[in-house]
Each structure stands twice: as structure tokens, then as C-alpha cells.
Write a structure and sequence with these properties.
InterPro entries: CA109-like, OPRN-like. By secondary structure, the chain is an all-alpha fold. It contains six helices and no strands. The protein starts with a helix and ends with a helix. About 25% of the residues are buried.
Length: about 190
């Protein structure tokens, strides 16, 4: 019974690691988009002063085109960030489904077998530790997804550079995801890999 359940958790954990890998690549892109948006906002004051265009300051069409392109790029970045939030939501839901699947394993056990869930076999984590790990992965990523969603929801073309820098710091640090704890969970599950 225990070995069979560990094999099932091995499959769930493998799917969870794939999801975390996709989360990390989505995170890199989201941070780059916020950073780019911050740089655009910081450039806009320079572009509003026509004297910064030197000899080209008389070319009103060029100046307006440059400003327009910057605003288009900012708008595109905000739209792409919203798309990244949809991906974070999907990944968070995937982790929640994995935790639910693991929970179903427990519900399918006979009452006398549930007491065996806390027993470790060799270097493998116990069934309870497997489930708690899946639940923790799900919870911390759901919380982080909710934070990212709230941060991006408030973005507009008129967001200040200081606000974008704060958003960037929060997006980059992922305060709901403790890297030490994630590493601990990965190490705990390592025998399952």
C-alpha cells in the first residue's frame, strides 16, 4: 500500500516540478516586462522636453512619433503582463489540482490505513509529508499569484516610475515564496525523483 501510494505521489511531484519550472520562466518574463515598463516611464519626462532632441527639435512629427512609440510599448508591456498573470493563474490552479489529487488518495484509503500515513520508509518521505508538500506548493504559489494579480491589475499608462519600481521589487522578490522552504521541500522529495 505505501509503495503504491509513493509511486502515485512521485507522479504528482514530477508534474509539480514541471509546473514550478514553467512558473520560474514566466516569472523571468514578468519581471523583465515590469522592468521595461519602468524604464519607459522614466524616459517619458526626457521625451516631453523638445530640447533633448537637439537639432531634430524642429521635427514635431518625429518627436510625437517617438513619444507615441514609447506609449505603445508601455501599453504592450502592460497587456503582456496581464497575459503572464493568466499563466500564473493557470499554473497555480495546476498545483491546486495536484494537491486535490493527493488528497483524494487519502480519501480512498480504508480507515485503518490512514494511520500509516505518517510512517517513513527508508529515505522516502511519509505519505503525510508528500501531501503536506503538495499543499504547501499550492498555497504559497496561489498566494503569490494573488499578489501578482493585484499588482498588475492596478497598472495603467499613468503609473509613476516610483510605483513601478515598488511593483518590480515585489514581483522580483516573490515575498510569498520562501526559496529556502521551496528548496527544503525539493530536498525532502528528492528520493521520489
Amino acid at each position: 500500500m505505501g509503495e503504491r501510494l509513493l509511486k502515485k505521489y512521485r507522479v504528482l511531484f514530477s508534474k509539480g516540478l514541471e509546473t514550478l519550472s514553467e512558473w520560474e520562466s514566466t516569472q523571468v518574463l514578468a519581471v523583465a516586462l515590469v522592468s521595461s515598463s519602468s524604464n519607459i516611464i522614466k524616459r517619458l519626462p526626457v521625451l516631453t522636453d523638445d530640447t533633448n532632441f537637439g537639432e531634430l527639435c524642429d521635427d514635431v512629427e518625429l518627436i510625437e512619433a517617438v513619444k507615441g512609440k514609447q506609449m505603445e510599448a508601455l501599453s504592450s508591456n502592460i497587456q503582456r503582463l496581464r497575459e503572464q498573470i493568466c499563466i500564473f493563474n493557470r499554473l497555480s490552479s495546476c498545483l491546486e489540482r495536484l494537491a486535490l489529487e493527493g488528497r483524494q488518495f487519502f480519501q480512498d484509503l480504508k480507515p485503518e490505513q490512514t494511520t500509516l500515513g505518517g510512517i517513513r520508509r527508508g529515505g522516502n518521505p511519509s505519505i503525510c509529508e508528500c501531501q503536506e508538500g503538495l499543499e504547501d506548493f499550492s498555497r504559497i504559489h496561489r498566494d503569490e499569484c494573488n499578489l501578482k494579480s493585484a499588482l498588475v491589475k492596478g497598472l495603467t499608462l499613468h503609473t509613476s516610475a516610483a510605483e513601478l519600481d515598488q511593483i518590480l521589487a515585489l514581483m522580483h522578490s516573490q515575498p510569498n515564496i520562501d526559496p529556502g522552504y521551496v528548496k527544503h521541500l525539493r530536498l525532502m522529495f528528492q528520493p521520489l525523483e
